[in-house]
Amino acid sequence: MQRLACVILRHSSSQGCHYDWLFEQPVARETSLLWAARSAHAPRAWSAVGRWALDALPPHRRLYLNYQGPLSRQRGRVVRMDGGWCRDRLWTPHRILLDVHLRQFTGLVELERLTPERWHARILPCG
Q: What is the pTM of this model?
């Protein structure tokens, strides 16, 4: 298991607001792009929600681990809402299991791929 950098960005645009969850991928960390997905929920709500949908985003450049500000092509702006790290317990094309350590949430999260564009996240009991 590797320690992978992780960030939650609040993305606001003319279409509204959502959260982008970005984290390093365990293979070739220093040169790889970030795994990325859109969520309606901030990490502080994950435990209460228990299970939520994620919309896959194209992989993001590593600069977004620290970036805040306007996005190109008038896509809005991002503000860093949370940050920390996670450890991968399992990583396959259809299932990812992460120990997540953020300021607003710490716990075990399973990501399951339903379609190329859609994932579900759910909180698992630690142990």
A: 0.91
